DNA sequence: TCTTAGCACTCGCACTATAAGAGTGCTAAC
DNA sequence: GTTAGCACTCTTATAGTGCGAGTGCTAAGA
């Protein structure tokens, strides 16, 4: 329903605004190469585009800026992904250059490099630790009444927590317990660990081993307490660089929202496969109504997935970010699957 | 050299400015209870105080604000610590209410509560992990050529890292190695672990156990790689609430500086015992020239120490913060020593 | 000699007026 | 259908004005 010329004008307008952050005027556009009609024509077309809701004016006699609908159309129909420049590729590859063998480290690095490359904020979600499989459990006594519980998963992830133990339990008893735990719980996912531990506790209690039951139950409590999420940030402060954000209150609430881990699922919907772009009020959180978020998933092996998100202004360099995320998602999947398989 | 009246005026001026963030005028001061002389007299005294460098004007006909020297004098001579209000004490005590048995958790909570209580940014340094003593070493094989190294210290702290192992090492060989490691390295501080591991590697190599030597040496490398510092923050975003900070660039560089762990020793000088106040340009970092930093140390047992710092504007509520930190330092020392001893 | 009332003076700030500039919408001619 | 021309709108920058808060100084009073 949009004419060729309207498409061209919309595209150039969005591109220009993304680049300059200034409302785009008809004269300015007419000067661009690739535009072979006069500013008056452009004015007419722009008025039409505004009528259709793709552009808006900041005030009566200003140039135009893209509306959310305009960005959406741009993203859906006018985005011509171009190959990444060499420098970007080199930078991205540098994430993997020193063969780190820990998933967590690779993700951390990705978050950092990505934010440097984009000047936006990056949020990376690691794979769901709860789906990892218990490789080994151990209990290391610290004092007469405390010990540290350690769970190693098949991914090399280590969970640990100090917990109280019944007074006067001797080391060989603990060892016996640990053996029972390992016999029965190795191979179980962290997700199932809680219920399984409950069953084991019942079992032990039934056999009238009260003291062990107590140990089991505190061990269980220690193990289920929520640990920090595996969310990694890069360039949290980059928001402060964006000319689009100047209102301290908005910045504050945006930063607040991003740090709060309970909001993360609202920013990055879980289970979203592939690349997604959420523009302005398309985001679930009102604090992000001036932001665009681009998310992409990556795979580790066949079953596990993680997510990458870039949070920036609506006036985001969509073309570049999409290419970057596409590439990084692929690279990350390959590298993390390699680490995982190895 | 300052008269009683000048002291009084200086004190009231600083107090007022701390509270209102507005330059203090003579009329305004004259109205205060406790002031029994006219605004003209106050004007004269203020002019003197300005001459001596304790006060300054923001412009010719404005009220006065304290100069850095003024704050310094106030802090050194006019600070009458008053007992903490009940609410504050209750809040502080809430840090310890659910008997957490992990140093790290307690410190994290302290950072959080402290920032909520002050509306400033808190930075807490945990005890130097490198001085902790190895309680147990273990190696959990993940695949044929990777394993995770785990070090548990006497404090319950767990360091872990995935590292490559020579292909085809069988579990019993690894177990043997772990036994050797434990026999020889339990009781060594993390600080000494590196050199001690080097010696052990040499020893193993001498006995022509090349494959074990390789394991030892990669284990060593894995273990010395720097892990994140034990620095905990609270209220990083509180800076954005302060009316004193409005320049986005300054805010940005201040936040940058605080996040960068290499700058931490410049913010909190290590080995500083007791309470210290650094005002404006007294701080080592130029990004903090508009800030005041109050630091206090706390003890864990007889040997270990940590630090608490509050970063806020120069117009900081010194009285309150000093009382808070004094109390928290004491409470934290008691609680962490208890956990440590237990 | 110290204190204070009085007063002229200085700025910052908020408000208004004005001019310049960028951009628009509309009309009429091509 | 396109475009030149033009009146119009609105922002931004700059200057001018009045008000208010606050100062410094002077001179009178204690």
From TrEMBL, chains A, B:
Keyword Repressor: yes
Protein name: Heat-inducible transcription repressor HrcA
Entry's family note: Belongs to the HrcA family.
Keywords: Repressor, Stress response, Transcription, Transcription regulation
GN (gene name): hrcA
Domain of life: Bacteria
Species per Swiss-Prot/TrEMBL record: Planomicrobium okeanokoites
Biological role stated in the UniProt entry: Negative regulator of class I heat shock genes (grpE-dnaK-dnaJ and groELS operons). Prevents heat-shock induction of these operons.
Pfam families associated with the record: HrcA (PF01628)
Domain Heat-inducible transcription repressor HrcA C-terminal stretches: 104-322
């Amino acid at each position: 329903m949009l004419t060729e010329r309207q498409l061209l004008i919309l595209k150039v307008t969005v591109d220009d605004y993304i680049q300059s952050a200034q409302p785009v005027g008809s004269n300015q556009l007419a000067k661009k190469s690739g535009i072979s009609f006069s500013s008056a024509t452009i004015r007419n077309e722009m008025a039409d585009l505004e009528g259709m809701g793709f552009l808006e004016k900041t005030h009566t006699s200003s140039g135009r800026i893209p509306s959310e609908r305009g960005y959406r159309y741009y993203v859906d129909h006018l985005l011509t992904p171009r190959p990444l420049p060499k420098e970007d590729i080199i930078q991205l590859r540098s994430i993997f250059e020193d063969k780190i063998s820990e998933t967590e480290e690779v993700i951390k690095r990705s978050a950092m490099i990505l934010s440097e490359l984009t000047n936006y904020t990056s949020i990376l979600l690691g794979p769901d630790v709860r789906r990892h499989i218990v490789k080994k459990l151990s209990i290391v006594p610290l004092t007469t009444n405390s010990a540290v519980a350690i769970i190693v998963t098949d991914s090399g992830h280590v969970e640990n927590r100090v917990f109280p133990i019944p007074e006067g339990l001797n080391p060989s008893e603990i060892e016996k317990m640990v053996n029972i735990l390992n016999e029965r719980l190795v191979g179980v996912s962290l997700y199932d660990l809680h219920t399984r531990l409950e069953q084991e506790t019942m079992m032990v209690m039934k056999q009238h081993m009260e003291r062990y039951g107590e140990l089991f139950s505190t061990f269980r409590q220690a193990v289920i307490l929520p640990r920090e999420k595996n969310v990694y940030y890069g360039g949290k402060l980059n928001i402060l660089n964006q000319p689009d954000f100047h209102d301290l209150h908005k910045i504050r609430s945006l930063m607040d929202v991003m740090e709060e881990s309970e909001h993360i699922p609202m920013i990055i919907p879980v289970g979203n496969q592939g690349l997604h772009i959420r523009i302005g009020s398309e985001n679930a959180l009102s604090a992000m109504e001036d932001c665009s978020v681009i998310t992409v998933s990556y795979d580790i092996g066949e079953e596990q997935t993680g997510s990458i998100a870039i949070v920036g202004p609506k006036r985001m360099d969509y073309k570049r970010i999409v290419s970057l995320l596409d590439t990084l998602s692929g690279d990350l999947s390959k590298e993390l699957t390699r680490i995982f398989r190895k």
